[in-house]
Specification:
The termini are far apart. The chain is an all-alpha fold. The chain is built from 2 helices and no strands.
Length: about 70
């Protein structure tokens, strides 16, 4: 990524277009933000404690107590 940014800066630094500057600035910010988000995701997955205290619930469970008597069709 650094090499790409350097090449872009070196090749197009003589352009004085405000639109080009906006695209270049926003594109660099986008890649930095995407890299930070990806690294944060990796760190959370690596450093989060593994807990088995809470069992997983399936979507097809028979526990329908929250919807008894409130079907919306009455």
């Amino acid at each position: 990524m650094t090499i790409t940014l350097w090449f872009g800066y070196k090749s197009y630094r003589s352009m004085k277009s405000p639109l080009f500057n906006v695209f270049y600035r926003d594109g660099a910010f986008y890649f930095v933000a995407l890299t930070v988000a990806s690294l944060a995701n990796i760190l959370v997955n690596l450093l989060a404690p593994v807990s088995t205290d809470y069992p997983q619930r399936s979507c097809d469970s028979d526990d329908s107590s929250s919807t008894q008597g409130r079907s919306g069709w009455e």
